[in-house]
Every structure is written in C-alpha cells, then in structure tokens.
Design brief:
heterodimer, A: four-stranded antiparallel beta sheet, B: alpha/beta, six-stranded mixed beta sheet, 21 helices
Chain lengths: 604, 608
C-alpha cells in the first residue's frame, strides 16, 4: 500500500501546492457559502427585533460599524448586497479551486503518461517481444484515466468533505449543543450504510461488465464471421444466440440499477429523517425559547451541507479502491528495469569487418539457438546467409544490434568486442530491414526520413529510387505526402519492404542487414534494388539473409546455417560443387522437369 | 472512410428523428406514464418540505405553542417515507425503461445486420458497427430514460416552486424571477462552449491512445532506428496539447458555476430585501419569508441541470442518427415478395416448399461491378455440372473471389444471370441456396463455445455421434482426443485457444457435417506443419467427393486433383482444362505451376 502511495506522490509532486490551494479555496468557499444562511438568520432576527440573538463578537462589530440594527432594518438592501458579494467571492473561490485542481490533475496525468511512454521506449527488446499490446494499452489509457479522475475530483472532494464536516460540526455545537448532538446522530449510520453498500455494489458492477463483455463477443464474432454465418444460413440461429445474451445483460444490469435505487432511496430517507429530527427538536426548543428562530434556520440550512458529503463518502471510498488498483498496474510497468542502452563505453569507428568466434546464444535457457558459431565477414563485402527454419539467422541479426547479448564466445567489429560497444552508438551504425517491417502512421516522406534529424527531399527521393519505390509513390494521390496506415493508404507487403529499405539506407550506415526483406518483392525488382544498392554504397558491408538463389549467388561469400552452426561457406561456384543444402536448393531449378513428369505419371 | 468521421453533435433539434425514436419508447408506454406520475410526485414532495418548515415556523414558533407538533412530526416522517419510496420506484422504473429500450434497439439492430448484404460490410468497418451497437445505444437509452426524467423532474419542480412562490406573494416572486433571463442566456452560452471544449479533449485523447499504440507496437523498430528520444518528444507534444485543452475545458466549467450562483444570489438577495420590507410592514409572515427564501434557493438549482441536460440531448441526437441510419439501411440483395410468400424469409423459412438442390451452376453473360466502381467481370460465362470440382487459379485481384461470391449469391450480377439447377437463382430465396452451401474460409473462423458446438454449426440438429463421425473423417478426433475436455473444450474467443491447424480441421469437420450440395473452399495461402498439412489435404479430398465444389486453390495437390482448372486473369478465363491438358500446353498454367512447385519444394527443404 505504501509503495503505491509513494508512486502517487511521485506523480503529484509538482502539484502539491496547487492541490493545497484548491483544497483551501474550496474550504473557504464552503465557509463563505455558510455565511449566507447566517446573514438571512441575522436579518430575520433583526426584523423580529425583540428577540436578542447571541452572535459572534465580530459579527456584532460589523453590524455596529454599518450603523446598528435599526439602520439595517431601514436599509435592507445592504444585506442583499452582502449576499451578492458573498456569492461572488464564493464564485471566485470556486473558480480558483476549479482552475487549480484542474491544473494539478492534468499535470499529474501528463506526468504519468510521459513517464509511461518513456519507460516503454526504454524497455528491452525481449520485453516487447513477450508483451501483450492490448494489456499495455489498457494500462496506459484506462488505468491512467482512473487515476486521473480520482485526483481531479475525489481528491479535492475528500479534502472538502473533511473540511466541511469539521467546521459545520464546530459551528453547530457552538450554536446549540443539544440540537447539534441530535444533528449528528444519524451521520455515522449513513456513512456506514454508504460504505457497506458500495462494497456490495462492486460485485454487481463486475457482473454487469462481464455480461456486457459476453454480449460484445457474440456481436463481434457475428460481424467478423459474417461469411460463415451466411454461408451456413445461420441468421436465425445467430439472432436467438444474440437475444439470449442481450436478455441476460438486460436483466443483470437492471438488478444493478435496482440496487442503486435502493441505496439512493434509503440513504435519502435517512438524511431526510435526520433533517426531520433537527427540525422538530428545533421547533420544540424554539417554542420553549431555548434557541432563536435564526438558530433554527441555521441548523436547517447547515444540516444539508453536512449530510451530502457523508452520502458521497461511500462512493468516494470505492473509487479510492479502484484508483489504487489502477495505480498498481501502472506501477508494474514503471518498476520494470530499463534496458541499459547506454551500457558499453566504447564508440569505435565502425567500418564493417565482423568476426564471430564460437558464439553460443539462447533466448531461453536450455534451448540454444546458436551453437559454437564461427565465421568472418570482411569489410565492404556482401555476405549472403542461407538457413533452414530455426537455424538462428534472425538471432544473428539481433545479436549484431545488441538487441540481445550473446552468452558465450566473441563477436568483434573492427577488432572491438561487441559487448563493449555502446548500444545506441552501435545501432546507429547498423541498419536492419526486417521481413515484415513496421511503418509509423506518418506520411511516406516522413517514414523514409524518420531516422534523420533534418532529411531533405533530395536525399529521400534518391533512396526511394534506389529501393525502386519512387515511381510507385508518385502514383499515389498525394505522392510522398500520402499518410500510411489507417487514415491513409495500406501498403502491400512489397511496398512496405521497399519503404523500410529506403528508410534504412538513407542513414548511410557502414553495415546493412537485410533479413529476408525482399521476400514480398518479385525477383526482377529484387535484383534491381540490389544493383542500385551496390552502386550507391559499394563499400558498405552487407549481410543478406534470403532463400532466393538469385540473391544468394551474387554475394561475395555465402554462409549456410543449420541448427545454429555454419555447415558450409564459400562462393556460389564453390558451393554447387559440394553436396549440401545450397546445392539441393539450386538443383530444384534443373530437376524440375523430371519432378513434373514424375508427379504427372503418379496421378495417372 | 470520410463518411465515418464521428460527428459528435448536431446543432439543430431534429424532430423527425425523435419521432422515429419515440416508436421504440411506445412498447413501454405504461411505464412511461407511471414514471411521469412518480416524477410529479417526487417534484411535489421536494417542493412540499419547505412548506412544512413554513408551517412549523408559523404555527408553532410564531404562535409559541406546540400542540400538534407530534402530528406534524408524523406527517413529516410520512412525507419522508413517501419520498423515499417514490425515489426508489422512480429510479427503478427509469432503469427498467432504459434497459428495455436498450434491449429493443439492440435486438432490432442485430436482426437488421443479419439481413444486410456483403456490400454493406465491405464499406463499413466492424469497429464502427460495434460502437453503434454498444456505446451509442447505451447513450441513447440512457438519455431517453434518465435525461428525460431529469428534465421532467426539473421542469416539474421548477413549475411547482414558481406556482407556490407566486401564490405566496406574486409581487415578490416576479422580482425574484427578474434574474431568469440572464441565467438562461449565460447557461446556453457556456454549455455550448463547454461541450465544444470537451470534444477537443476527447479527440486529443484518441490521439494519445494512438500514440501509445504506436509506441508499443513499434518499440522494436524504434530501437533499431535509435529513435527513442525523438519519439518521446513527439509524444510529449501530444500530452502537452492534452494538458492545455483539458485545463481550458475545466476553466470554462469553473467560470460557469460561479456566474450561475452569483445570478442566483441576486435573486435571493432581492427576495430578502423586498421580502424583509414586506414582513416589517407586516404584509407577509415570517414563516412565509423563510419558506420563500428556501424556495428561491431551490428554484435556481435545477437551472444548471437543465442546461446540462439539453447538451446531453444534443449528443444523444448524434447517437440516434447513427443508430437509425444503421437500422434503416435496406439490404441490397432481397428476395421478392413472391419468393418470400412461397419459400419463407431468412428467419422463418418454409422448407417444405423447397426443391432439392442438385448443384448445377451456370453463369450466363455475367458482368459485375463493385459499389466503388471497380469492374471485375465482363460477360463471363461458365457452366459447372453437378458434382464437378472446379479449381480457380490466378493472381490476387483477378476475380476468383468475386466469381465464388456471385455463385453463392453474396453478391448479385450487375448484368446477366446465374442459374442454379436451370433456374435464375433470383427466383428462389437466398436461404434456399445458402443453407445448401458449405464454406471453408482462408483463415478459419470459429465462435466461442465448445468444439462440439462449433462443429454442430454445420447442422444444428446433428446428434453427438454424427458430430464425432464428422470430426473423425478429417482426423480431427486425434487432437480432440488429447484435450482434457475433449469435444467440450472451449475454443476461446474467435477460437483463440486452438492452433491454426486445429481450427482448420474443425472448419472442415463443420463443412462435412453440413453435407452441402455446393462447397466453397477458400484455401489458406501459408501452410502449417507438415503433419497437419497432410491431414488437411486428406480432409479436402474427402470433402470434395460428389459435390459441386468451387475452390480458390493455392495448394498444388488440390489444383492437380480438380476436375477442371480455370485460370482467371482480369476477370476472364484465359486457360481451362484439367491438370495434364494444361501442363502440356506450356502456357500460363505451366508457369504458375512450376513456380509454385519450386517454392513449395524449397520451403520443404528449408523446413528440414
């Protein structure tokens, strides 16, 4: 509990003063608004004249300074004006409260959101691979909203409620002890009832939520599966399925509403009973002359002010409970340790000679992916990697960018051990294009230039041409300014890959890695892109992971991976001479005719 | 998608719309009347309490005696109980009406959705429909019950109070009411601005959610591009905007309240001044003054509420428009009245009048253009004999899916006609054709429920044994047997608890159970593990036996075994025949086949 509150304090830190201000001004506003009934009662007494009322000394001073009772009676407008002035002052105080509590609450939520976003960006690659997007989003949005709502409203309300309760109780007791005691008799009862009730009602809310969830599921499945529904002609069946859930939800939620109805009517009746008690007792004592009419009126007005916050307390406490749960969920993200991306002290000039020596790597312990991997890539060369599924090709890529760190062995770039190189520095030197690249929902131009501070148009057009994408982009309605994603155009797999290629090569990294990133592009375009790449950046060390023979065969060196180990390496000419995976793939082309004949005769 | 940018609120008050909505309130007429009565009672009781206070002051305190105080106490308590009971029934009844209207709207909406054609689903995002059916309907029914309740309560109470005040002392009442016009103007002015400012806040909120979404989904890419810093800066711009627009909205609200209170206090002040003078001049009793003043206070309170409720009604109107637009959409493919009379409609079919479907399908000079103008087929002709297996092969967008969709009557030809068993299928009911269809989708779609229930979807009256037999035929029983609860295992939302391969096998079992006369198979493009692959290929062969089948084929084994292969390009059949005929022709099909063959084999090798 205490660490949750510590977390809350962290967010609220800058705004404590504002909150204090808000609570004070709302407290003052309440006091001011309590003075109005006093004025009315004083006026009533003055009019009555004969009955002397014991007013606080400073009020008597005010009255005499204005000119005494007689004067006021002749000029009642003074009281009217005072009422209005008080209302204006009250209004200003409420305005201050509204403004300050809003600023405090919005600063707090802004703080929360920024911190969450920052943390998410800095968490490790592994975290994001395993994370559930939906869950994270819920924490960043609805949980933050729950906390925000509480600190925006309830926080100040609690302060105000405590303030009012204290002051009103004091005032009432100062006025008349007996009546005051009678006034507060029911308060604890109302409070306890309120509290117990809202604890119970939580369960009903949960059931209603769940029923709604079930209803939504039926609806969603029906809509996304409309083809199946129609193809089997199950419209009538779906209607009855939906109706069942619809009815269930309706009934459950109606029960919830009835529960709430019970609460409001009972607590309302309890409050009114309290008021009745005060009134009747007050009348009794007023008739007996033990209290003045003015006092009775004050009690009558104030008692309402006392009871309303008590009624609200139950709800406030429930909201507090919800808020703490939300806070905990947010805390879980913030507690996760960062990826220390500033780890690694060296920032060597990277030219691109890479050496793997006896590297062993596993994502989870007990399941090694790379076993004793050894190979060399010389500076400026183009190396192609061919591997079976699960041979560890992608892990290579992850290791090179230090998205994961290897457990055993050594990887050096330019002679410097990879583990000593600063992560961010390293990543800036290595460009990766993945098979299914992620594009940001910005324009195509912005996407291509995204890694640069101030990309100019020429650079962008240039790389787009290299990636064979320039003409396709111009074909779009808005050209380079076409937004990508939901609100704009949905790019095909091949187009996405080309944009990703463009955005990577614009960075002019000394090392480029293409992880099967031309798979959605046809062979001619594949060759064109690679040719353009070579022309543009001839001495960039390039690593191509692919299973297209045309791609593989043009590389300076081909490495064949199987089960995390290098099983073959050499040029195309060398490898087709040797028995192995590479030759088998290559032979597919030639032996096709025979295969066809075979399968054909099999059918006959 | 511009048609779907959310329109938050409509300025004019649309009477026609509310009249249409009123129809949904009609079945709850009885409750509405009782509700109105209750509201009047509550309003009245609220108004009575100050009167009781006045009575007490005048008759006990002023007179100086308390005979009858006990009776007074009893009456007061009686009023308290009356109010409590009325409030209970008020809330419960309003709730009943709200839930009732909600239920009806949802039921009607869902039924309509079952009737709408695919062209509607093509252009309407699922998310949009979901929002209409869930939050819009909720908001609307909430407004119809509570909003109107509050409105009537507020208006009733204000009327009562006004009347009471006027009766007590009409001159004083008029003086007090002098502030009303000012209040009304202020309310209207502010409410509009406050609503607009909250609209901005909500929009920024969606953008922040979008920002989080992107930040999370793109986190890995961000790392490789080393863009953490700049992403944060961009995000902070968003939160900064959120901050300013939220504070603006809050400040507006904070100004509004005090202004209203100040105006209200002017009214009270006036009452005090002139009322006081009247009492001094002994024109009015003290009790009356006391009551009058509490009425004044009571009067000005609902005005704030009224302004808020009008704003809510405007919002509700926007929701209502969207819901009604969905409910009133006419389906594109309709059976004619004659057909409905003879064969029944989608919800109550007259199966006894149906002829048996044999499965001969003829496309006669069919042309088809999608709603957005995309022309797909032009004078397309095809004759499929009953029981024939047709494989449709071609690039994406060549028209294969369209042909199949037309055959199933999910769309109708723009020109020409399609005949099933020798008769234009528009002369028969949709359900006649579609209930004799079996459909296996590219990516299998299951419903949440048990495996058994999902297979039973193929034929609702199937026995458990028949279901298990169907599963056994496709070798699905093997994996089902390994599950703890077997056939009663829950598949999860959308079938999420099963693997893709398992889901596919269940879809095949479902299709077999349906025992359709016409089968449509939209093959998956990517293959799963070899073992499941083999089982599925076997299942496919089984399922194709003896029925007219249309396959949008991707697997070579499926294509090879078809009776007739159609190569579709740009909506035309460019090659037609069986596998060996087409291979020997060494044309398009040959190229397609060899390329795919290479890829399939390569994938096999690499999967080693």
């Amino acid at each position: 509990m205490s660490d949750k509150l510590k977390l809350l304090r962290q967010f609220i830190k800058g705004s404590m003063l504002l909150y204090a201000g808000a609570i004070i001004s709302t407290g003052l506003a309440t006091i001011v608004s309590m003075i109005s009934p006093l004025i009315i009662s004083t006026v009533v007494d003055s009019i009555i004249g004969g009955k002397l009322v014991e007013l606080p000394a400073f009020v008597e001073n005010i009255i005499s300074s204005i000119g005494g009772r007689e004067y006021i009676v002749q000029n009642l407008w003074i009281c009217a004006v005072m009422l209005v002035i008080l209302a204006i002052v009250n209004g200003l105080l409420l305005y201050a409260k509204g403004k300050w509590s809003a600023i405090a609450a919005e600063s707090t939520s802004r703080n929360m959101r920024d911190k969450l976003y920052d943390k998410l960006q800095n968490l490790s690659y592994d975290y994001h691979v395993k994370a559930e997007t939906g869950d994270l989003i819920q924490r960043c949005t609805s949980d933050v909203e729950t906390v925000r709502r509480f600190v925006a409203i309830q926080f100040v309300e609690v302060g105000r409620a405590i303030f009012i309760l204290t002051i009103v109780t004091i005032v009432l007791f100062r006025l008349d002890t007996t009546l005051a005691t009678a006034s507060v008799t029911m308060v604890p009862l109302i409070f306890i009832y309120s509290f117990i009730f809202f604890a119970k009602v939580k369960k009903a809310f949960k059931e209603s939520d769940e029923a709604e969830g079930r209803l939504s599921t039926v609806l969603q499945e029906n809509l996304t599966g409309v083809r199946v529904v129609r193809a089997f002609g199950r419209q009538a069946y779906e209607v009855s399925k939906f109706d069942e859930k619809n009815l269930e939800y309706t009934d459950i939620t109606y029960e919830l509403i009835r529960l709430l109805a019970k609460y409001w009517s009972v607590s309302g009746a309890l409050c009114m009973t309290q008021i009745a008690v005060v009134l009747i007792l007050g009348v009794y004592r007023a008739v007996l002359g033990e209290i003045s009419l003015g006092t009775l009126i004050v009690f009558n007005s104030y008692i309402g002010m006392l009871l309303w916050p008590v009624r609200q307390m139950g709800r406030i406490l429930t909201d507090l409970g919800k808020m703490l749960v939300a806070l905990e969920r947010i805390g879980e993200i913030l507690k996760t340790p960062d990826e220390i991306s500033s780890e690694g002290s060296e920032k060597p000039l990277i030219k691109g000679d890479i050496r793997f020596r006896n590297v062993c790597f596993e994502y989870e312990s007990g399941r090694p992916v790379l076993k004793d991997l050894t190979f060399e890539i010389s500076e400026g060369s183009t190396v192609a990697i061919l591997g079976t599924t699960g041979s560890g090709k992608s892990s290579l890529v992850h290791l090179l960018q230090r998205l994961y760190d290897y457990q055993e062995g050594s990887i050096t770039i330019g002679g410097v051990e990879l583990k000593n190189i600063n992560k961010k520095w390293l990543r800036q030197q290595i460009g990766i294009v993945l098979q299914e690249p992620f594009l940001f929902s910005k324009t195509i131009k912005e996407n291509i230039g995204i890694a640069l501070e101030n990309p100019n148009d020429e650079e962008i057009f240039d790389v787009a041409k290299t990636a064979s994408m320039h003409d396709a982009i111009l074909d779009f309605e808005k050209g380079y300014d076409t937004p990508v994603g939901e609100k704009g155009v949905t790019l095909s797999g091949g187009q996405k890959q080309r944009v990703a290629i463009a955005r990577t090569i614009i960075r002019n990294c000394p090392i480029l890695i293409f992880d099967d990133s031309l798979s959605a592009v046809d062979t001619e375009t594949d060759a064109a892109i690679r040719k353009a790449l070579k022309e543009r950046s001839g001495n960039v060390t390039t690593i191509l992971i692919s299973h297209r023979i045309t791609t593989l065969s043009e590389a300076d060196k081909i490495i064949v991976l199987e089960h995390g180990k290098v099983v073959q390496s050499g040029t195309h000419e060398e490898l087709i001479e040797r028995e192995g995976l590479y030759r088998r793939i290559w032979e597919l082309q030639n032996s096709l005719e025979d295969e066809l004949e075979l399968s054909h005769s099999q059918k006959l | 998608m511009d048609a779907f940018t959310e329109q938050e609120y409509i300025k004019r008050f649309d009477w026609g719309l509310w009249k249409k909505l009123a129809k949904f309130a009609v079945p709850h007429k009885k409750y509405l009347i009782i509700l109105t009565v209750l509201m009047v009672v509550v309003g009245a009781t609220d108004a009575v309490f100050p009167l009781l206070t006045k009575y007490a002051v005048d008759n006990f305190i002023m007179v100086g005696q308390f005979t009858g105080l006990l009776n007074f106490a009893v009456i007061y308590l009686f009023m308290v109980i009356l109010q409590g009971v009325t409030v209970y029934f008020l809330i419960a009844l309003a709730g009943k009406i709200e839930m009732g209207v909600c239920y009806d709207l949802r039921k009607t909406g869902f039924k309509r959705l079952q009737e709408l054609s695919f062209s509607y689903y093509d252009k309407t995002p699922v998310g949009w429909i979901m929002a209409r059916m869930t939050s819009d309907i909720q908001r609307l029914s909430g407004t119809i019950s509570w909003g109107l309740t509050d409105l009537v309560w507020g208006v009733t109470m204000m009327l009562f109070v006004m009347v009471a005040m006027i009766i007590m002392h009409w001159k004083l009442a008029l003086i007090t009411f002098a502030v009303l016009p000012g209040l009304a103007v202020a309310s209207v002015y502010f409410q509009k601005r406050i609503l607009a400012s909250y609209r901005t806040v909500r929009k920024t909120n969606s953008r922040i959610t979008g920002g989080f979404n992107e930040g999370i989904q793109g986190a890995r890419t961000t790392k490789t591009l080393v863009r953490e810093g700049r992403n944060l800066v961009e995000f902070q711009e968003l939160t900064g905007e959120m901050y300013s627009s939220s504070v603006t909205a809050a400040i507006l609200s904070s100004i509004y309240m005090p202004i209203v209170m100040a105006l209200g206090s002017i009214g009270t002040g006036l009452a005090l001044w002139f009322g006081g003078k009247s009492v001094i001049m002994e024109i009015m009793s003290y009790g009356t003054l006391v009551a009058f003043i509490s009425y004044t206070v009571q009067f000005f309170e609902p005005i704030r509420e009224m302004a808020r409720i009008f704003a809510e009604l405007q919002y509700a109107q926007a929701s209502a428009e969207r819901i009604l637009s969905m409910i009133e959409t006419e389906p594109e493919i309709v059976d004619s009245n004659d057909v409905i009379k003879k064969m029944g409609d989608v919800f109550s079919p007259k199966v006894e009048n149906w002829s048996v479907v044999k499965g001969e399908v003829i496309f006669e000079d069919v042309s088809f253009t999608y709603k957005d103008g995309e022309k797909v087929l032009h004078n397309f002709n095809l004759h499929v004999k009953a029981g024939e297996t047709i494989a449709l092969v071609g690039e994406t967008g060549s028209g294969k899916s369209t042909i199949v969709n037309l055959a199933c009557r999910f769309y109708e030809p723009t020109k020409g006609r399609i005949m099933v068993d020798g008769e234009d299928y528009r002369r028969k009911s949709q359900l006649w054709l579609q209930s004799n269809l079996g459909y296996v989708l590219q990516s299998p779609h299951l419903f949440s429920g048990s495996i058994r229930e999902n297979i039973r979807y193929g034929r609702l009256d199937a026995t458990d044994k028949e279901i298990e037999d169907a599963a056994a035929l496709v070798n699905a029983d093997r994996f089902i047997g390994k599950l703890e609860k077997g056939y009663d295992t829950e598949v999860g939302e959308g079938g999420g608890r099963l693997s893709t391969g398992e889901k596919q096998l269940i879809s095949y079992a479902r299709a077999i159970l349906a025992n359709p006369c016409i089968l449509v198979l939209d093959e998956a493009t990517s293959s799963i593990d070899t073992e499941t692959e083999l089982m599925i290929q076997y299942a496919i062969q089984l399922v194709l036996e003896g029925r007219t089948s249309f396959i949008i084929a991707h697997r070579l084994s499926t294509i090879r075994s078809a009776d007739r292969i159609l190569l579709i390009k740009d909506g035309k059949i460019i090659e037609e025949g069986n596998h060996s005929t087409l291979i020997n022709r060494k044309g398009y099909y040959y190229n397609l086949y060899t390329n795919q063959f290479k890829e399939e084999r390569q994938a096999q090798i690499l999967r080693a």
